[in-house]
Amino acid sequence: MKLNYLFPHRFKRIGLMILVPFVLIGFYVVNNDIEPEVFDLNVPAIFVDEIIGEQFVFEMTENNVLNEIIGTILILSFLMVAFSKEKQEDELIAKIRLESLVWATYVNYAVLFVAMLFVYGISFLWVMIFNMFTILLFFIIRFNWQVRKLNKSIGHEE
Question: Could you give the CA distance from residue 25 to residue 139 in angstroms, rounded to a whole number?
């Protein structure tokens, strides 16, 4: 049974072309607390619990959506890079992909575990925000490292 859950190979390049600038834009926006008024929109909210204010469920709320736009684009581009087929997709690459995903999950939760023990307050919120992206980042790094190692070993055998 052949499962076809990967994007075509060309999506990796598209994902990288989107990912790199949006990582830079995202860091700039977060570090400089940029919220242009053009992104202030009335949006549907499932749940809102203002620190000083009201709490409600399933209502419209005004929000600056720039962070959400950047986050969504980052997640989609990370997914395109992480889960695009390789030029030569075979059983060994599939095994490396699975092992890398398991490894990335372990490392991601190890980082989260350490953060839960040693990071507090608003800093922990930042750890959680970045933790949304790190599992895909860890996967991409390990998978590409293992594929590169494989290609080097094959190159040395020939």
Answer: 22
- What is the span of the domain harbouring residue 57? 1-85
Same domain, 22 and 97: no
Residues 154 and 158: their CA atoms lie apart, in Å, by 7
Residues 79 and 110 in one domain: no
Angle at 11 between CA 155 and CA 92, to 5 degrees: 35
On whether both 59 and 116 belong to a single domain, the answer is no
Specify the pTM.
0.87
37, 91: one domain: no
* Predicted confidence band of residue 1 (pLDDT cuts 50, 70, 90): very low
Residue 64 pairs in a beta bridge with 40
pLDDT at 2: 61
Residue 44: its H or E element: strand 40-49
Residue 38 CA, chain-centre distance (Å), reads 26
- Asked if 114 contacts 38 with a C-beta cutoff of 8 angstroms, the reply is no
Are 40 and 5 part of one and the same domain? yes
